[in-house]
Each structure stands twice: as C-alpha cells, then as structure tokens.
Give the backbone structure.
Amino acid sequence: MSSKRKLLIVFLILIFSYLPISARDKYNDDTDYSRLPASEIHKILGEGKARELEKARQFAASLPKSTPAYDQTEFDVNYYRIELRVDIPSEIIYGVVTMEAKSNIDGLDSVAIDLYPTMVVDSVYNASGLLGYYHLQTVNVELDRLYDSGETFSVTISYSGHPTGSGLDGFSFDVYNGNPVAASLSEPYAARSWWPCKDRPDDKADSLDIFVSCDTAYYCASNGNLIDTAQNGDGTRTFNYEVRYPITTYLFSVAISKYTVWYDWYHYGDNDSMIIVNHVYPDKYATSLSSYGIAPEAIGIYASLFGEYPFVNEKYGHANFEWSGAMEHQTVSSMGGGNFAFTIPVIVHELSHQWWGDMITCNNWHEIWLNEGFASYCEALYYEALDGVSAYHTYMASMAYTAGGTIYIYDTTNVYNIFSSRVYDKGAWVLHMLRHVVGDSTFFECLQAYYNSVHQYSDATTEDFKNICESVSGMDLDYFFDEWIYGEYYPRYYWSYNSQLDPTDSSYWNYIRIIQTQGTSPLVFTMPIDLVFTSNSGVDTSVIFNDVGDSIYIIKTDDYPVDIEFDPDSWILRYRQQTSWIYSLIPFPLDSGIQLISYLDSVVARGGSNQHYFGLVSGSLPTGLELDTLTGHISGIPYDTGRFEFEVYATDRYSSSADTADYKIYIEEGNAMAGDVNDDDVVNIFDITGLIGYLYLEGSPPPIPVQADPNHDCIINIFDITYLIDFLYLEGPAPQIGCATL
C-alpha cells in the first residue's frame, strides 16, 4: 500500500471518529453506565432533550409566521380525541384530531391550533360542517359562530404527513435490531410537529381518547389505560387508550415496535393494586426484569413521601424507544434501549416525574427546574430510603453544581439553557438546602401540601411553590428563592474561630468569624449554617443565621471545644476554607444604662497577644463615661440620655494587628432623687442614719452614690450628713444630684 493511500485512510478514520453521534445512537449501547455520577447522568438526559429541541427551534424559525392577532389564552382545552394511523414503511402519519375547548372571552370567532406545515391539513370541520382555515405555523380556524365566555366549541382537523421531513424529531422512525421503532418525544414544544394541539404546558386537557393503528406485527404503547385492541382486517390493528387524568400536550406519547410486554403490580392497599406495563425490546427482557422490577417499591417510597401515585386509576410503565436518555411520558415513561436507560437513577428519575412534571407541570419553560430539579432530587431520596442518610448525602455530593447562570431560564431561545445541568443539579440542591432551612419534617409537609394544592393535575410557578412552603413553614423564604433561583453561583466562605475561658463560670466563649468573598450576584448569601462543636463530653450543633459578608458570631459552651466544624454535612452548596483567626473586636452588644447611675461594660478584642490598646475613632460616649485604653472598660456615671453611637479601635500591644468596630449605648432617663441615700423615694432622717451607718458603722453602701452626695462635691463624707441635717431641720439648701462614685 502506498504511503499516500495510508495517509488518506488515516485521515478518513480521524474524520469519522469526530463526526457527531446522533441523539438516538449515542447512549443506546452496551456501555456500563451504572457507576456514572449523578451529574453525568443528568448531563446525558438534558443533552438528549436539548439536541431535539434545537432542531425544533431551528425548524420553527424557518417557517412563515402566523398572524400575531391570535391569542391562545382566549380558550382552554378540555378534551382531545386523537385518531392516528402510523404507516411505518412510508414513515407517514394519518390523523384525525378533535379538540373540544371552552371560550375565555365573549365573542370568540377564531382559534389558532399549533401544527407545523410538514403535516398537510386535509380538512377542518365540526358538527356544523366545514370550517374556514389557513395553515402556517398554526392552523388558524374560523369558528362556525361567535362563542361567549364559558361556552364550549369543537374543532376537528384531518391531516397527514411525514413528521421528520424537515429534520424535526418530535416523532421518529428508527430501527432496533432489524425491527422498526416509531416513537414520539415532544418536550418541550414538538407535539405540534406531528399532531394538532394547543402546544403549551399551562393548558392541560382534562382527558384524551387515543386510537393508534399500526401493522399487526407491532405493539403500540401509549398513555392511560388500554381499553381495546381491535383487528381491522387489513393487516393492521388499532390500540385504544383512555386517559382520564389531566395531561399536557408534550406528555402524550406513542411508541410502536416489536415489544415483549410484561406486567408487574403496585399494591397500594390491602385489596387495591395498579398494573405496571413494561414494553421492552425482546433482547432486553432479562435486563428489564431486574431494572424495571424496582418500580413497585420505588412507587411506594415516593407515595409515602409525597402522596399517592398520581395516576393510580390508570397505570405506570415503560416503553423502549430509540431516543437518547429517557422521557417521563404520563403513565408510561419512554426509555432508551441501551444500558444507560436501564440504570436505577434514570428509572427513578422518570418515575418521580409522574408527581413532579406530569401531575404538577411547570407553567412555562423558564420554570423547568420545577420538573427536572425535583426529579433529580428524588433520585437522592430513593437512595436515602434504601440505604440511609449517608447514602443520601453521598448522592447529593455527586451532583454539586458550581458554575454560573440562574436556575430560572431567562433566555429560552438558548435550548441548552433549558435542559442544562444547572436545571437538573443545582435545581436538586435548591430542594436539598430548603430541606435544612425549614427543617426535615416541615420540608416533607411542604411537598405534601404542594402535592395536595390547587396545582394538582395543573401547573405551577416558582412563586406558587414558594408560597406553599411559606404557608406551611411560617417562614419568609423570599431571600432563599431570590438568591438560589434568580441569583448565580454559590457562597464562598472563609471562616475561623477563637475560644476563650470565661473565668466567672468556667465556661467558654467561642467566637466564629465568617467572611463571604464571592464577587457575583448575590454578593451575600443569606443562609443558616451548622456549626458542630466537639468536646471531651460529646458533640453539639449550633445553627447561626449568616446574612452579612463579614461577621463574628458568639456562642457559649460548657466545655472547651477541641474542634469546631463548619457545615460538616454539606447542607449548603458552597466553597469553604478554614483560616487562622484574625485579630478582631468581638461584637458583644453593650448594655444599656440609666442616667446618673453607675455604668460598667467592656469592649472585647481577641487575638495576637491578647494585650490591647483601645481608643475612639469617631462618635462620642455619653458625658460621664470613659473608655479605659488598657482594659476596654467603659465606666462612669452617665449624665446624658439617648442613643450614642461610636467607633472603637483596638490594637495589639506587641504587633501591628488592629481592628475597628461600631458600638452603641442607649442611656435611659433616670428618676434619681437627690439626698435619697437609701433609695426609698423620700428624703428623711433614715437617709441621715444610713449615711452615718455607711461611713462609721460598716453599714451598707448607698444604692445610688449620686443620691448620697447632696452637696455635689463628688465625695461622700461627713459634709453630706450635715448638708442633709441643715436641709431637713434648719431650712438649709435643697440636696443636689451629686457626682460621687463608690
């Protein structure tokens, strides 16, 4: 072989090795995915949906625009009757879809029904006859008359077409092991690529009747209960499914192939059971027995945590298809045929969507975390139920998300934003952190209240969920949702601590300094933080509420802590680093005082040599009080009243370490009575005898020294006795409030 030919072959190999793998092939292989971390699982799940959504977005952008006058909020859909014939050899769908809806306005004369022009409309009609229409991105239908608010109307559209004709994969025709596979995946707005509907998540039909005809060699899986399978006598048979729970358009599913169908049961009462129907590729039957076999137990776990399985009068099940990953179609999750979609995290993720995503659906695609974040978090709850709290925390750690961007998707035109790892992983962490913020039992009460709320079988926004959590917990959670749903990144904590003996009672003062250093929004995260103290007598946990960027928290313990841990169980998505203690003034609040009564309190500094100099930087103390530069004591007799604010500095005597802090003292107005030595609210002979006893007979000191200094010479002595005698018995001058101290 010539060298040129060798080079050409190598070149071609390199080219083909870098060609993109299709969404339907990339993860439908025999690789062992069981050891993937949760973050990688979610990346695969999200990439599969995003890839198809990007095709839908690009295709929609290429279409002529519908007249903007049509407003789909002017009507609500009640019901769809969906009749489909899926011709697998020609890859064509023939359909007749009837929509029954209610007008929300007076004088409704037309409606816009989503359907891409890859599907050709044959006719539009209702009981009154043919209806006028034109077809661009929507089928714009002229109703047979004006409908007022509350009135119902019906529209039937007969159509056909090749749904993937323009590269749009809302409905795909594929092959697995030589057998055809025709299946749908419509999230978020690709239902319109293969059937006419009002394709938005905030308007659920109350019910569906589904009729799907296909070659008799194949089996069709779909939503709800299988009511009948009829042979048509022309080599086809029709599967009739009935859905009697509200359902949104992107959750309507069709999956057709040569399936092995097997059954399981979820027992939700002593005499009550729900069928579980598994539609699997024949060569995956043995694998599915063990993997899909976890469904009854998993349903029971989630039912005990949230509320009963939402579609218990219908079914649950799985259907293999050729998309990458999996999709939580209502009552029948579609699962890729490769090993990835047979892993436990993927199985329980899609199952938990039946509660969060299918029963309660995000109101719009900005709020997709209400679907995907919840389902990702439910994976951790499943492992907690099986293996305990340690397994739960280990699983949460495997999907810690530390990149930027908000969980709320502001730009839904960027399809990879909608199904990004941020939505799956950080969304799950929001629930993990919320659990600790409100408390464990309260958190599950919140989820149960959400399950039982007006949003059941409907849709919800982040604000709706927050309001329920606030109502149940009695807490204001605006700060939490603002910073974690609408903010970016996470807090970066630098922390240190210092412990000192309190000689008055042999306990210990512990000073914990926490500094947040992130330069992103929010600049300060408000969060409760666990501090775990370990001493020779045991372990104790204190929770501090951190809401400033640099603060010191004071906690007293009976024993000396040999160790203090910061959020050791990782209840916060954060970076943390313990640092050496920084020389600091401790923010002990100063006591309030009373005018003309002796005052004593101290500012405290810790660090360095613990030998300090103190002084005022700004502001002023009340008249009569002084700051001792060596001890930090603030003492004296305050003469002024009111609130006094001032800044204090402290420096270490033997180093350059220094700190400043703001303090305040409030001095209340006093009611001192001059000459009332014994403080009984009257000046009489007993005050004279009290002074004599104190000065000459080792009696009790005056309770309020300034009242025992009636001559105002700042000394309590014999002259104060004679001053009171003159006042009481010789018409001498009235006593004054003195200036003496003891």
Summary: The domain at 492-556+570-582 is CATH 2.60.40 (Immunoglobulin-like).
